Amino acid sequence: MKSLVVYCHPCPDSFSAAMKQTIMAALAASGHEVRLIDLYDEEFDPVMSAPERRRYHDAGANEQPVRDHIAAIRWCDTLVFVYPTWWYGLPAMLKGWLDRVWVPHVTFVMPTATSPIRPNMQHIRRLAAVTTCGAPWSVSKLVGEPGKKTILRGIRALCAPGCKTLYLAHYKMDTVSESALKSYLSRIERKICKFARD
After folding, report:
1. 156-177: per-residue pLDDT in tens?
2. What is the pLDDT of residues 28-74, one digit of tens each?
3. CA 108, 95, 50 angle in degrees (round to 5)?
4. CA-CA distances (angstroms) from residue 162 to 127, 156, 183?
5. Which domain, by its residues, includes 176?
6. Residue 49 backbone phi and psi in degrees, to 5
7. How, if at all, do strands 108-109 and 33-38 pair?
8. What is the rounded CA–CA span in Å between residue 47 and residue 170?
9. Based on the structure, what is the number of domains in the chain?
10. What is the domain-level CATH number for residue 141?
């Protein structure tokens, strides 16, 4: 089993960093080979350039600017996103990664006049998103949790039929206690271990 963790937070001493470490340890303890993409650490450029956009639909050429990242998503059968929810959605860095890496002919087959878009990442059989939210649960639900939908609906649609999913979120991050954060890390560990072994 091969797990890719895609991590997005600028601060190495953040709670998100603690979540990342907990997740990677739980995956390894469950027998997974684990690789990490740390978007801020590697200074990933989330901005799609004009030349890149013009080659977006060109098979092969559209892979070149992000070929190492494409190799990583082709390698894994388990994909875990770890990030803070900002303005109810994905951080710009992570959204830019999806824009630039999940390109046509690699992750999906382009639709035609007679056929719909078709998934091309059927080797991914587990998909998880682990996050924190400043807003309360009720407000997050009212807004619609667009980040959750992007991953568990949009990305999920390109993965294997019956792809197993997991979403974990801790709400009201700005006011929770230290003990609540420790409890959340314990919950992450339990849930990821079960998710990885099922």
Report:
1. 999 999 999 999 999 999 888 8
2. 999 999 999 999 999 999 999 999 999 999 999 999 999 999 999 99
3. 75
4. 11, 9, 30
5. 2-197
6. -75, 165
7. unpaired
8. 29
9. 1
10. 3.40.50.360
